[in-house]
Amino acid sequence: MNPGDDEDELDETADRCDAMDRALAVHEAGHTVVARALGADVLFVEIDLATGNGKSRSSQFDGSPIKNLAVCVAGCRAEHLLDAHSSRRTKVDDRRLMREILLRFPDAERRLARAEGYRLADATLRANAVYVRKVADGLLARRWISDSATVRIDGVELAALLAFVHSI
């Protein structure tokens, strides 16, 4: 074994951890930006770097399950758009919520509703990719200044990051 092998292994591990953290931040930023772009009030976005879980809290769209569906799928779609892929574990709650939303539609309309939700999420994310990156970068910057594995953006700071998000 070469003396540099340990350093190379540590660098690879650090790179994998950074990629996982970035994917998680992009995922949650996707939910956040799409919710705001579609007109929701967004209270906070956070990620837990120890568990790989994240969440954002925003108002629901009463009477618009397509918008709720778009917000639900936006995390995974943001990962795809920005080439930042997280583990399947981070998507379990999103898939459960997507099924709940789709069950509100008559059987014959579910496939079309799902497609429309994805289309709306994709269009909104493409129009606002720069803001997804800004929110994700804001979350990641907190890794180094937080006393906790959970980092959050809320209040005035989140409002400033989302101020120029484009409505679709």
What does this structure look like?
- There is one protein chain.
- The chain has 168 residues and is mainly alpha-helical.
- It has a single domain (11-162), classed as Methane Monooxygenase Hydroxylase, Chain G, domain 1 (Up-down Bundle), CATH 1.20.58.
- The protein has helices at residues 3-37, 65-81, 92-102, 110-127, 129-141, 155-162; strands spanning 42-48, 53-58, 150-154.
- It has a three-stranded antiparallel sheet.
- 35% of the residues are buried.
- The mean pLDDT is 91.
Give, in spatial order, the strands making up the sheet with the most strands.
Answer: 2-1-3
Put simply, the count of helices is: 6
CATH fold descriptor = Methane Monooxygenase Hydroxylase, Chain G, domain 1
In CATH, what is the class?
Mainly Alpha
Q: Tell me the domain tally.
A: 1
Output the CATH homologous superfamily.
Peptidase M41
How would you spell out the order of helices and strands? Answer: HEEHHHHEH
The amount of helix comes to 55-70%
Low-confidence stretches: none
Q: Which shape, going by the Cα principal axes?
A: globular
CATH architecture assignment: Up-down Bundle
Estimate what percentage of residues fall within beta strands.
5-15%
How many runs of DSSP E, i.e. beta strands? Answer: 3
Integer average pLDDT: 91
| Estimated radius of gyration | 17 Å
- Sheet with most strands: 3 strands, antiparallel
